[in-house]
Amino acid sequence: MRVVAAMSGGVDSAVAAARMLDAGHDVVGVHLALSQSAATLRESARGCCTIEDAGDARRVADVLGIPFYVWDMAERFRRDVVEDFTAEYARGRTPNPCLRCNEKIKFAALLDKAIALGFDAVATGHYAQVVEVPGVGGGVRRELHRAVDSAKDQSYVLGVLDAEQLARAFFPLGDTTKPQIREEAAERGFFVARKPDSHDICFIPDGDTRAWLGRALGEAPGDIVDTDGAVLGRHAGAFGYTVGQRKGLGLSRPAPDGQPRYVVEVRTDTNQVVVGTADLLGVDAITGDHARWCGPAPAGVVRVGAQVRAHGAEVPATAWADGDRVEVRLDERIRGVAPGQSVVLYEGTRVVGSATIASARLDRD
């Protein structure tokens, strides 16, 4: 099988490429250039996609003896990920750019180009597992499952893959822990074996999302108010806040009962940030749109596990699909669910699908 190995320049994608080669596939390494003005060097463990990262990926490809190319997808990334991220925050929502990147770049733009060039599949260094099961009417069907290493499991950010994309995706690291991957990389002679993991949002390498949004959207001063409308402070832009946020509010007046305050609503129409006590954050019902299914859509009401953050806890729930929308009823309340986040549904370790959260509310007292 001819396979494109997406190589970021990190240890995970390096070992993933090596394992695909060991499995007998015809492997070509590809590094995605996602920035129109890429930095030369990484800033410690923050960010990625620098010129240094591309060089690291090329050196691993040389060790493996596989062809290596850099594919320029900066314009597509800017349009489908960065601009989407900015627009979502401008609407008072809290997007997850990693899900959008997986959906629009790695398993749409990259996979489409690979197929157009005659490749059969794409392999990445994500921590997740693909399990083949008997299909209806014969053959096999591929399912997406959680990784063995629960601390590194990335099935949540892959919940946007549909069945056709999953059929052409490989995740060779899903059965291994991160320490084992680093050991394997060292044994293979990869100098990236001890390279720090990238984290935070790749296009905001300093990690200051609020400052980045301020530069992108411009300052828009407004009021921070309580649930009764009393002004408690000022902000430089409602887009810099998210539901559930406690730090960085800069309030001059404490709550009468001394309890901490949290962001409970972002009102972009009036440019207000509403704060309240923690009990106002609890929700047990979620409506999602932009549904994506890793296999057949659920038929009727089904029991699932629902996860609303990349490393959040899974909560027992019931769910049902209604066209492009999904309704989820949680068995227990959870806090800080913001529109724009994603809810990913599981059946055991299997990823059923995902949706973008349109609203969250408390249905039961």
UniProtKB/TrEMBL annotation:
Keyword terms: ATP-binding, Cytoplasm, Disulfide bond, Methyltransferase, Nucleotide-binding, RNA-binding, Transferase, tRNA processing, tRNA-binding
Site (Interaction with tRNA): 126, 341
InterPro entries with a match to the protein in the record: MnmA-like, MnmA-like_C, MnmA-like_central, MnmA-like_central_sf, Rossmann-like_a/b/a_fold
Keyword Glycosyltransferase applies: no
Domain tRNA-specific 2-thiouridylase MnmA-like central residues, every copy: 212-276
GO biological processes: methylation; tRNA wobble position uridine thiolation
Enzyme class: transferase
Protein residues bound to ATP: 6-13, 32, 125
GO CC, alphabetical: cytoplasm
Family to which the UniProt record says this protein belongs: Belongs to the MnmA/TRMU family.
Protein localization: Cytoplasm
Catalytic center residues: 101, 202
EC number, UniProt record: 2.8.1.13
Record-annotated tRNA-specific 2-thiouridylase MnmA-like C-terminal domain positions: 284-357
UniProt protein name: tRNA-specific 2-thiouridylase MnmA
Species whose genome carries this gene: Intrasporangium calvum (strain ATCC 23552 / DSM 43043 / JCM 3097 / NBRC 12989 / NCIMB 10167 / NRRL B-3866 / 7 KIP)
